[in-house]
Amino acid sequence: MKKLLIAGIILLGMIGVAKADAQKVINTLAGAPEKLQNHIQAEIAEAKAYQKNSWADAKAQLLRLKAKFIKDQ
Q: Coil, strand or helix: which one is 44?
């Protein structure tokens, strides 16, 4: 009888945890598209910033290279 009571308490505890976890999972899945969109937008912004800096650096390097080999007369 004592084992049955303990098993029942454990089962009720697991059901309560499962309900809480299920709601958490549902909320997480419901927010996934927004999180994905935010992540993609952040990655695009980061890529644009990197490309802007990279192109500016390449332009500066090219100007320095030209200055070494092409002297104004």
A: helix
Distance CA 51, CA 45 (A): 10
Ramachandran quadrant class, 70 (left: phi over 0; alpha: psi -120 to 50; beta: rest): beta
Number of H helices, E strands in the chain: 1, 0
Model pTM score: 0.53
- pLDDT above 70 coverage of the chain, percent: 84
Structure token digits, residue 61: 């390097």
Angle at 30 between CA 43 and CA 17, to 5 degrees: 120
Residue with tokens 């927010």: 31
